[in-house]
Design a protein that fits this description.
- There is one protein chain.
- By secondary structure, the chain is of the alpha/beta class.
- The longest helix has 20 residues.
- Helix 2 crosses helix 4 and helix 4 runs parallel beside helix 6.
- It contains 14 helices and eight strands.
- The two termini are about 30 Å apart.
């Protein structure tokens, strides 16, 4: 069977640009797969926000992110790109970061050039490490990656604070050190994406996140610009959260959910996603008429 990294590369070859759906848990991964996505993404902000109710400021640990990744990869064979923020420096140097991500089934990891107490890529006040320090991160990830382990995607946040020229300089250095994929954060124009794609010799990702610095460019526009991957990191999570807010308020105010049923996934639809009846049948066959597990 092919490795997760090989499946990610295969998806990258089959779809141009490859649309990557952000998922916050295993059930969302199943929904994205049913919609036709060929690759998935676990956002560091998604783990912090959805699993722990925290802002995306570098609070989550390697083991916490790996557990969310493991749950997703256990529920789907689609390749998963995992946001590992700055890599958890001591774990990155020791090799634990790459080993744990490999064990969790990550197809690729996204490693960025912010300081360890990072910020969301579309917030003000981001601070970057030096180009040399980021190169050391990439070197540590490459040298400790297990055989068949995750691809390494280098992310630069330099566009917002240092400008496109500096970001390109950093990106070229990161790729020269062995980064196999590139994530340029907070790019604001198609012309700048064209420049990244022209000057960087590895596949470039466009992060099309809502309410941020990057306009909501279409797949067609990004394809024409040379972009190879298009990421929607938290689109579904934002929609889920808004709907949940409205549901809670309505039930609290009206004392019933009757007016909300047309906005809910039905029980039968849920069962279809989970292959519920087939799982029940397996259990029934295993326990037999007596209700005891067959020997």
């Amino acid at each position: 069977m092919s490795s997760p990294a090989q499946r990610f590369l295969a998806a990258l070859e089959q779809e141009c640009p490859l649309q990557i759906a952000g998922v916050i848990h295993a059930y969302a991964a199943k929904l994205a797969g049913r919609a036709g996505f060929q690759a998935l993404y676990l956002s560091g902000a998604g783990v912090a926000n959805a699993s722990f109710g925290l802002p995306d400021l570098g609070f989550t640990t390697l083991d916490q992110v790996a557990e969310d990744a493991r749950r997703i990869t256990s529920a789907t064979s689609l390749p998963l790109l995992v946001d590992i923020d700055t890599g958890w420096e001591e774990d990155l140097v020791s090799g634990r970061t790459m080993a744990v991500m490999h064990q969790a089934g990550a197809a690729a990891v996204q490693l960025e050039d912010q300081v360890s107490m990072k910020r969301c890529g579309h917030r003000p006040g981001k601070k970057l490490v030096s180009r040399e320090d980021m190169i050391e991160r990439i070197r540590a990830a490459r040298s400790t990656r297990p055989p068949g382990g995750p691809l390494i995607m280098a992310r630069t946040d330099a566009v917002a604070g240092e400008g496109v020229a500096s970001a390109l300089d950093r990106a070229q250095a990161y790729v020269a050190e062995g980064a196999e994929l590139l994530f340029a954060e907070a790019v604001e124009s198609l012309a700048d994406y064209q420049r990244f794609c022209r000057e960087i010799p590895v596949p470039v990702l466009a992060n099309i996140t809502e309410f941020g610095k990057t306009p909501l460019f279409t797949v067609e526009e990004l394809r024409e610009s040379g972009v190879r991957m298009v990421l929607y990191p938290l689109s579904a999570f934002r929609a889920m959260s808004r709907t949940a807010e409205e549901v809670y308020r309505c039930i609290r105010a009206k004392g019933t959910q009757r007016d909300l049923l047309d906005r809910m996934q039905t029980r039968s639809d849920l069962y279809a996603v989970l292959d519920y009846e087939a799982q029940e049948q397996k259990i029934d066959e295993a326990i037999g008429p007596s209700g005891s597990v067959k020997e």
